[in-house]
Design brief:
The chain is α/β, with parallel strands linked by helices. The protein is 55% helix and 14% strand. Strands 2-1-3-4-5 form a 5-stranded parallel beta sheet, sandwiched between helices. The radius of gyration is 22 Å and the shape is elongated.
Length: 163
């Protein structure tokens, strides 16, 4: 099962982005970071747009730099429009989240490094939730198949007995 997160950030905050990515290295979570995930000569806008569309969780590293980034505001807008689950991580004290996501609960990374560990836990919990939903769905499909096989066998048996 794939679980994809998209990290929205300003390139000025790349150290914090890389720290978050390093915390998710030994997990089955695929992390999209434009700085590392987009190859030179590859078109940024469609690649980033597709990554947001395909992500399971949108992680926002919100800082005074991100606040001034046109890319970050557009990424937030796309994620909001697609109703993606958004996990805001605030890097700078006294900074408020922008418009459409101002009502979201956030983690204040500036307060303590433990907040990144909380973010890691939230991301892994979201992964496990998706994994459990897929398992339940597969079990339900298998039960449905077993029921159909039993009904078919019963119908065949009735047909044989009626002859």
């Amino acid at each position: 099962m794939k679980f994809k997160i998209f990290v929205s950030y300003s390139t000025h905050d790349i150290k914090q982005v890389d720290l978050l990515k390093s915390q998710l290295t030994d997990t089955p979570i695929e992390v999209f970071i434009a700085e590392h995930s987009v190859s030179p000569s590859q078109e940024l806008a469609p690649t980033i747009s597709n990554a947001i569309s395909g992500c399971d969780l949108f992680v926002l590293l919100w800082s005074r730099y991100a606040q001034n980034s046109e890319w970050v505001s557009q990424e937030i807008g796309k994620a909001s429009a697609l109703k993606k689950k958004i996990l805001p991580l605030i890097l700078d004290k006294d900074l408020k989240l922008p418009g459409f996501i101002s009502n979201l609960k956030y983690l204040a990374i500036y307060e303590q490094q433990e907040s990144l560990k909380k973010a890691q836990k939230i991301i892994i919990d979201a992964y496990n939730s998706k994994k459990n939903q897929l398992i339940k769905s597969e079990l339900a499909k298998q039960k449905e198949k077993d029921t159909l096989v039993a009904m078919g066998a019963g119908a065949f048996l009735l047909w044989v007995l009626s002859k």
